[in-house]
Write a sequence for this structure.
């Protein structure tokens, strides 16, 4: 799974560099003060990569590839739509939206009942995600930091890690 995450990250970096455009300037009605941002997302249990791209005006898409620290063979791919708006300062935005994910989980780590019934193996679990957060983009350096809550529901398997993996902070390079 580490190779899959590394490969996906490499593809994302190359794709973003191929489509990179000039950085946007601030407009009072437009919260998108950067075009694309690439970085890391962390919480005490989860680590991963994040890429956020503004489509037009306040509309953005974000992709996440995450894994659990203690269960390194598990990986989740998430795609989100986010609506952004300014809150007082041009560099400070809030965002909210939703999307979907697909996770590849080891039965022993995430679904003990299936592990007892079927033994070792991996199962795939699709699900729906919501997101609400706040972000700050620095004016003088190409850095964006954010904190968010990202609740989710899985269609297959347990959701017993929902409480641990619900929030996160991200640091991204903007361009």
């Amino acid at each position: 799974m580490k190779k899959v995450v590394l490969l996906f990250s490499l593809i994302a970096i190359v794709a973003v560099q191929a489509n990179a455009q000039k950085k946007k300037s601030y407009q009072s009605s437009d919260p998108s003060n950067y075009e694309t941002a690439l970085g890391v997302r962390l919480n005490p249990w989860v680590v991963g990569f994040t890429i956020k791209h503004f489509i037009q005006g306040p509309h953005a898409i974000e992709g996440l590839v995450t894994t659990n620290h203690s269960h390194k063979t598990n990986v989740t791919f998430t795609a989100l739509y986010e609506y952004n708006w300014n809150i007082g300062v041009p560099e400070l935005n809030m965002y909210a939206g939703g999307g979907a994910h697909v996770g590849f989980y080891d039965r022993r780590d995430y679904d003990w009942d299936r592990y007892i019934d079927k033994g070792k193996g991996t199962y795939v679990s699709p699900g729906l995600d919501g997101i609400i957060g706040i972000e700050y983009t620095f004016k003088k350096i190409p850095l964006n930091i954010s904190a968010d809550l990202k609740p989710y529901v899985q269609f297959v398997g347990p959701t017993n890690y929902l409480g641990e993996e619900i929030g996160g902070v991200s640091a991204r390079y903007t361009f």
Q: What stands out?
A: DSSP finds four helices and nine strands in the chain. Residues 2-19 form the longest helix (18 residues). The radius of gyration is 17 Å. Residues 18-28 have pLDDT under 50 and may be disordered.
